[in-house]
Amino acid sequence: MAAKVGVGLLGLGTVGGGVASILQSPGERHPLVNELELIRVAVRDLNRPRPVVLDESLLTTDPSAVIQDPAVDVVVEVIGGLEPARSLILQAIAAGKSVVTANKAVIARHGQEIAEAAAAAGVYVLIEAAVGGGIPIIEPLKQSLGGNRINRVSGIINGTTNYILTRMAEEGAAYDAVLKDAQDLGYAEADPAADVDGLDAADKIAILATLAFGGSVERAAVPTEGISGLQGVDVDYANQLGYGVKLLAVAERMAASGDPLPLSLRVQPTLVPKDHPLAGVNGVNNAILVEGDPIGRVMFYGPGAGAGPTASAVVADILNIAGIRQASDGPGKVDPLLAAGSWRPCALVESGDIRQRHYVRFKTKDAPGVIGNVGGCFGQRKVSIQSIVQFNASDAGAEIVVITHEVSQRQMDEALQAIQALPEVLGLAAHLGCLQGDK
Ligand code: NDP
Ligand code: HSE
User: Residue 210: what pLDDT?
Assistant: First the structure.
């Protein structure tokens, strides 16, 4: 068995706390998580109460002590801001350590300098958490979509503003109160102006453009407008016209080729048709739509901020580095993540134990009491009904549509058998699965 991979954490706030939680509970995750060992953690204030319980001896207020600790193999920078974060990343690289960071502000402005230093030192700087929180988008752009000519990357890439816009639209909630909630939930930047003024989204689209189009872009030149000037009346009118309003970030090529390749980048509040894939992206969720040749359109969707999702992306990067270390540990060894082998036996449950929500449509006689009898059969088998509606009642009969809550296939089959034996039920006309909505 290879030696453990030592992790040094710079920052133990929202994201750092999430990372420490994962490292402290490796059970039922990839076995490589068990090979990660949290060695030291740098914080600003040793006395600040923390949601995650750590051995106090791990904590220090000296980030350099973490970086220089010989047992630390990977440095995770989740302090945020430009300095000292940039200098600490460069210090870690100079010490020959690979770095994982969630810091889009630093990467958007100093990514080139950091990448060159890392290449010269032969170490990795991985940034999956810097864009889209828990959504895997950086590695797909670097690896899985490498065979494409990317034409456009667009998306909702700030969780705080999407959370604010969604709650204002759905609940008529007041801007200041929802922003405070976003801060309490750990979504917002230390200075939330970075979110609401569109600066965070501009950092992220600059990073995505660099990866998608292969050359670094000048962050300061990205036209950026946030949501602070957005007026409710415009959201209202857009709604009546069939649009939602989202803070959209867009990067697109303006020519098939060029030296330099002409790109257009922007961040601004934008009307999105309600049938567009980005229209249904609500709350703290983000989505990134990548358009390329030959793939067409592919969308990445998920939670864009918060401790757990962001820590998920950070730990994925740590695992990639750990996997590469293990692969180079001896002859014939391969990266266990890239190899994707199975690491334990698995078995399928019996079909009767499969649980899901169901949609069923019965053809029935239009007789008094039929809805009650159908509902009774479900109730006797403890099948909970979300909705039951009668359609098309006429002399020829009626149709009853039922959507259930989540139940086992066995419960459902027993209920359906009983219902089809009812004299007023003519037959089961449709039986489909039904996904749970987000709300
Ligand atoms: P927090 O403000 O919650 O945490 C910052 C941490 O850094 C704190 O533990 C703080 O210590 C520590 N710290 C600050 N300055 C120093 C210093 N000079 N020396 C040592 N420690 C220091 O930030 P987040 O966790 O929210 O964000 C961290 C990074 O992750 C940022 O770059 C952010 O943009 C990025 N990010 C955040 C996401 C989120 O949802 N929050 C999502 C994706 C990326 P102390 O606790 O003692 O104050
Ligand atoms: N403040 C950022 C957001 C955190 O709300 O999207 C995730 O990058």
Answer: 96
pLDDT at 2 over 80: no
pLDDT over 50 at 162, yes or no: yes
Average pLDDT on 330-342 reads 78
How many helices and strands in the chain, by DSSP H and E? 14, 16
Count the Cβ atoms, other than its own, within 10 Å of residue 382.
11
**Which residue, among 110, 414, 149, 101, has the nearest Cα to 293 in the 3D structure?**
149
For 170, the enclosing helix (H) or strand (E) is helix 159-171
Which residues, judged by CB distance below 6 Å to any ligand atom, belong to the binding site of ligand 1?
A: 11-16, 42-45, 48, 63, 78-80, 84, 102-104, 129, 133, 186-187, 189-190, 305-306, 310
- Give the pairing of strands 74-77 and 5-10: parallel
Which ligand 2 atom sits closest to the C-alpha of 195?
Answer: 1
CA–centroid distance, residue 307 to ligand 1 (Å): 11
What distance in Å separates the CA atoms of residue 426 and residue 357, rounded to the nearest whole number? 23
Q: What is the rounded CA–CA span in Å between residue 43 and residue 11?
A: 5
pTM of the model: 0.91
Of 97, 104, 204, 246, which is the active-site residue?
204
Residue 437 pLDDT grade (very low, low, confident, very high; cuts 50, 70, 90): low
Q: How far apart are CA 355 and CA 342, in angstroms?
A: 25
Structural domains in the chain, sorted by start: 5-134+307-341 (3.40.50.720), 138-303 (3.30.360.10), 354-434 (3.30.70.260)
The CA-atom distances, in angstroms, between 101 and each of 45, 88, 176, 305 are: 21, 11, 30, 14
Helix, strand, coil % over all residues of the chain, rounded to 5? 40, 25, 35
For 363, which DSSP code?
E
On the question of pLDDT at 1 being above 70, the answer is no
Q: Check if 97 is active-site.
A: no
Instruction: Give the chain's end-to-end CA distance (angstroms, integer).
Output: 45
Q: Is the pLDDT of residue 438 over 70?
A: no
Q: Which residues line ligand 2 (CB under 6 A)?
A: 133, 158-160, 187-189, 195, 200, 304-305
Q: Are strands 125-126 and 59-60 parallel, antiparallel or unpaired?
A: unpaired
Beta-bridge mates of residue 301: 287
Spatial distance between the Cα atoms of 78 and 19, rounded to a whole number of angstroms = 10
Q: Which of 187, 196, 199, 208 to mutate to test the pocket of ligand 2 (most atoms within 8 A of CB)?
A: 187
pLDDT at 439: 44
**Exposed/middle/buried for residue 106 (C-beta within 10 Å: 0-12, 13-18, 19+):** buried
Token pair belonging to 17: 């706390």
